[in-house]
Specification:
By secondary structure, the protein is an alpha+beta fold. The chain contains 5 helices and 3 strands. It catalyses: D-fructose + ATP = D-fructose 6-phosphate + ADP + H(+); a D-hexose + ATP = a D-hexose 6-phosphate + ADP + H(+). Pathway: Carbohydrate degradation; glycolysis; D-glyceraldehyde 3-phosphate and glycerone phosphate from D-glucose: step 1/4; Carbohydrate metabolism; hexose metabolism.
Length: 148
């Protein structure tokens, strides 16, 4: 081989080695970024997790508040209204039914015609009325007087 060919081969080999080194360096740098990102995610997960005993304590406190709210008006910090629903629909219901939905900002009256298992919902109409915010935080008598 002549000197020119050997020189060209050396230059090509050096270029290939430099390119390989650059690729390895970038991959290891990206790998380091990935490890740092995973460490941040694990730290975030640890700080957001709630131990099971604490979750049970929260559930117990919620049950106490719900029972107090159902026992008397103003007995709880939760806003609650007794619904008196004592059984679930079967799917066999036929006829015209009404639903009253009191949400956080609106009161909605729904009229629905049910056709049983064969036709389910035949027809549905609804009317929605906004509730002033002061009534949603006041006494229930004032709210129901407004709705009536």
């Amino acid at each position: 081989m002549n000197k020119f060919k050997v020189g060209a081969m050396v230059v090509c080999a050096a270029t290939a080695c430099a390119a390989a080194a650059l690729i390895v360096r970038r991959r290891s740098r990206n790998n380091g970024k990935m490890k740092r990102a995973l460490a941040i995610l694990h730290e975030f997960e640890d700080k957001c997790s709630i131990p099971l005993p604490k979750l049970r304590q929260m559930v117990d406190a919620l049950i106490v508040e719900m029972n107090a709210g159902l026992a008397s008006e103003g007995g709880s910090r939760l806003k609650m209204l007794i619904s008196y629903v004592d059984n679930l629909p079967t799917g066999d219901e036929k006829g015209i039914f009404y639903s009253l939905d009191l949400g956080g900002t609106n009161f909605r009256v729904i009229r629905v015609e049910l056709g049983g298992k064969e036709r389910q919902v035949v027809h549905q109409d609804f009317e929605e009325v906004p509730i002033p915010p002061e009534l949603m935080t006041g006494r229930t008598e004032e709210l129901f007087d407004y709705i009536a």
